[in-house]
Design goal:
The complex is a heterodimer. By secondary structure, chain A is an all-beta fold. Helices cover 0% and strands 50% of the residues of chain A. In chain A, the strands form 2 sheets. In chain A, strands 2, 4, 5, 6, 9, 10 and 11 form a 7-stranded mixed sheet that branches. Chain A has a 4-stranded antiparallel sheet with strand order 1-3-8-7, with no helix packed on it. Chain A is globular, with a radius of gyration of 13 Å. Classes of the chains: A mainly beta, B mainly beta.
């Protein structure tokens, strides 16, 4: 069975541009979460979506937005890119969202570099 | 605000040794705790999830324990192998959805 898939794997942008990252969850999983991992740090929570609704948001500016589609795939959008947005962006899926006790399964991430 | 700390930050051991990785957290009102492995340039691989009502979980050579009242978890790796070399991350969930991660322990197992 395919795991969580993310595209693209690498991306280079310049300051001020916008970017869209994509994620397909494991088949049957209805919840998708996004995390940002800066080099040398643990991942930081950005969003969780479950059944196409936002269920949680981390401490990130409004430049970050996301959505979930009827097939449970998800997009993360970042506007007005800053140098500090350079990071590995990770997508995770789980069977259920909200206050569940299901493990989260991560993709290999999108490496975003801002010049 | 939940703070997760992992000690040590880095560890180097010879093949065959048993080892313990430590994780501590400041807010004991957690739903669960999850241990992950991350290889360089890769995503996270889920190793073990311990629910707040559980004390430990085992998978193969891995055993994770949870002491919620003291805010601590340990990951025990038996008979370490060079293939175990990776960064190990501990993450706790207070909300049931968002994970709060430590910075990880970088493990090197030498042949």
């Amino acid at each position: 069975d395919a795991g969580v898939t993310q595209s693209p794997t690498h991306l280079i942008k310049t300051r001020g541009q916008h970017v869209t990252l994509r994620c397909s969850p494991i088949s049957g999983h209805k919840s998708v979460s996004w995390y940002q991992q800066v080099l040398g740090q643990g991942p930081q929570f950005i969003f969780q979506y479950y059944e196409k609704e936002e269920r949680g948001r981390g401490n990130f500016p409004d430049r970050f937005s996301a959505r979930q589609f009827p097939n449970y795939s998800s997009e993360l959008n970042v506007n007005a890119l800053l140098l500090g947005d350079s990071a590995l962006y990770l997508c995770a899926s789980s069977l259920v969202g909200g206050r569940g006790n299901q493990p989260q399964h991560f993709g290999d991430g999108t490496r975003l570099s801002i010049l | 605000k939940q703070e997760v700390t992992q000690i040590p930050a880095a560890l180097s051991v010879p093949e065959g040794e048993n080892l313990v990785l430590n994780c501590s957290f400041t807010d004991s009102a957690i739903y669960n705790l999850q241990w992950f492995r991350q290889d360089p340039g890769k995503g996270l691989t889920s190793l073990l999830l311990i629910q707040s009502s559980q004390r430990e979980q085992t998978s193969g050579r891995l055993n994770a324990s949870l002491d919620k009242s003291s805010g601590r978890s340990t990951l025990y790796i038996a008979a370490s192998q060079p293939g175990d070399s990776a960064t190990y991350l501990c993450a706790v969930s207070n909300s049931g959805y968002a994970l709060n991660f430590g910075k990880g322990t970088s493990l090197l197992v030498t042949p």
